[in-house]
Amino acid sequence: MLWSKTFIPTLRDDPTDAVIASHRLLLRAGYIRQLTAGVYNYLPLMQNVIHRIEKIVREEMNDSGAVEITMPVLHPAEIWQKSGRWEVVGREQMRMKDRHLRDLVLGGTHEEVITSLLAGELQSYRQVPLNLYQIQVKFRDEKRPRFGLMRGREFIMKDAYSFDVDIEGLKIAYNKMADAYFKIFRRCGFDIKMVESDVGAMGGTGAHEFMVLVETAGGEEVILACPRCEYSANVEKATSLVMADESAEEIQPKKNEMVYTPGMKTVEEVTAFLRVGPEQLVKTLLYQADGETVAALIRGDRDINEIKLKNHLRCIELEMSPPEKVIRATGAAVGFAGPVGLKGIRIVADPEIRSMRNFVVGANKDDTHIVGVNPGDFQVSEYSEIRKAEAGEICPHCNQGRLEAYSGIEVGNIFKLGTKYSEALGARYIDADGNENPFVMGSYGIGVTRTAQAAVEAFHDDKGIIWPKAIAPYDFHLVPLNITDDEQKAVAFEIYEGLREKGYTVLIDDRDERPGVKFNDADLVGVPIRISIGSRGLKEGVIEVVRRRGLEVEKVPVKEAVKRAVEIWENL
Fold first, then answer.
1. Which of 166, 90, 142, 60 is nearest to 444 (CA)?
2. Is the distance from CB of 142 to CB of 94 less than 8 angstroms?
3. What is the pLDDT of residue 299?
4. What is the pLDDT of residues 509-535, one digit of tens each?
5. What DSSP character marks residue 439?
6. Residue 247 pLDDT > 80, yes or no?
7. Residue 252: pLDDT band with limits 50, 70, 90
8. CA distance linking residue 288 with residue 326, whole number of Å
9. Which of 25, 143, 207, 477 sits between 20 and 30 A of 337, alpha carbons compared?
């Protein structure tokens, strides 16, 4: 492909609205352009990357036995209402009405559609196992679209759905998909990790995410993993062993003393004022769980895990209580809530609270806290682990290793759905004994566009992108330094045709630009191999082959250019 015949609008400066490196580079290198918040145009270079990722996905999915189909993007609301997810997914769905005022959904996932389809087509146990997949645009009404393609409102995803007669069949399908995912992401050039994750709105009995490990600020999630065993989970799901035996500290004779703490609302302010450690304070956090006010208690030096709290409460929506509801529930402003004397409110406490003694809580009175509080001084509705696990804590799996933290980007997920959707939507089969049973299902997704940006976040330097060769927009980038020089042009096109004849994709920079501009753009765009042709080298009978990773330069005789360039590419 000639640079002059395609569309690569590179930028000299970083876009001001791009926060993470991969977003900045995709914009600067002319891969994407934003239409509106969370919605992007994929330009020619990105289109090539997407096609290459999709090719890898298709090959491995087909090899696993899955079969490709295409399902509608536009869904009737009724199937989401039947499954119960109309309320659960709620505001994250892109919804609309047709001219007859019927509710419709732009699909963010297709569990309801595939189950409705096969409910009318599969009747016998002899027709499964079956795994159907598609690669398609999906929609999600993100509250805060950000980070480019990482968290957008429109994106490309591969989604697959397996149907089996029992849990053992689902386990086989699940493991087969996990194996296929490892192959896909390793072919894409990633250091990939499979971690336990929360099932979320998808439902089911278990789930895992596939995470690309990165060392940059672009890692969206924290992964906690044990170096001594195979345990790993994202921070939403991770647990740890920090539970101590009941404190040996004696209960102080001076109990429940009111202390004036003027304007002291945060943990840092209160503990500094009272000269105690944050582990000696209990935070009382008020939430609205489907409209009900709930108090959550955790130690002052801990962070709450809202996913764990939401799962424990089994609510659809969970959000922090606004100031006016805090005042109504406690009689005090935000920052002074506490469990002592809190009436008519469900209190959920982390189990660590049980072992604490002589701690500090809010007094439900402005500018006041209570010291010398103990668990028997207030009524807890139920105990549940609602804190975030942290690096350095003990692994819950082997009880020996200390958890280590990694930064990662989710690029795929797999779910054991069980019979959640088949029961709700009537997808049933007749077994060998003539009995009717619901199919046992699995769901498996790969974010194609997320995978592309994850590669940029994982592989770049201060000059630009460094694409893994399997998903690069082109295999080779030819750069004649002076396209108006007949000899340079002739050599460049001779190499160009030689590489294309061998089946490689080649971008040739035929612009009449200064060498510095061409080199900067080549580094920015990130094709794995650059071949530079200049008059000085041609006088010596050589061209330069440059590996994008590390920018290693090798001078190669012109007559051996194609052969040697291919050897270098094959050994990347």
1. 60
2. no
3. 96
4. 999 999 999 999 999 999 999 999 999
5. P
6. no
7. low
8. 10
9. 143
Residue whose C-alpha is closest to residue 515's, from 472, 473, 554, 544: 544
How far apart, in whole angstroms, are the C-alpha atoms of residue 178 and residue 172? 10
Per DSSP, the residues of 517-537 read: HHHHHHHHH--SEEEEE-HHH
315 burial via Cβ count (<10 Å: 0-12, 13-18, 19+): middle
Mean pLDDT calculated for residue range 36-46:
97
- The count of other CB atoms within 10 Å of the CB of residue 16 is 7
Tokens found for residue 261: 């703490």
Angle at 544 between CA 539 and CA 545, to 5 degrees: 155
Angle at 422 between CA 418 and CA 428, to 5 degrees: 115
Q: Give the three-class secondary structure for 147.
A: coil
Is 197 found in the same domain as 159? yes
Average pLDDT over residues 134-163: 95
Residue 358 confidence (pLDDT) above 60: yes
Q: Is 88 exposed, middle or buried (0-12, 13-18, 19+ CB in 10 A)?
A: middle
Same domain, 434 and 471: no
User: What is the per-residue pLDDT across 321-338, written as a single tens digit (0 to 9) for each?
Assistant: 999 999 999 999 999 999
Hey, what are 130's tokens?
């079956």
Domain extent for 374 = 257-383
Torsion of CA 192, 196, 200, 203, to 10 degrees: 110
Same domain, 423 and 378: no
Percent of the chain with pLDDT strictly greater than 90:
88
Q: Are residues 136 and 204 in the same domain?
A: yes
Confidence (pTM): 0.89
Tell me the average pLDDT across 115-120: 95
Taking CB atoms within 8 Å and a gap of at least 24, the contacts of 256-262 are 256/340, 256/370, 256/371, 256/372, 256/373, 256/377, 257/370, 257/371, 257/372, 258/363, 258/365, 258/368, 258/369, 258/370, 259/368, 259/369, 259/370, 259/371, 260/367, 260/368, 261/367, 261/368, 261/369, 262/367
Q: Listing from the earlier edge strand, what are the strands of the sheet with 359-362?
A: 257-260, 368-373, 359-362
Residue 9: pLDDT band (50, 70, 90) is very high
In this structure, are residues 299 and 282 in contact, taking their beta carbons and an 8 Å threshold? yes
Distances (CA, A) of 270 to 297, 332, 349, 356: 16, 16, 20, 18
Which long-range CB contacts under 8 A does 543-546 form with residues at least 24 apart?
Answer: 543/491, 543/495
Same-domain pairing of 542 and 452: no
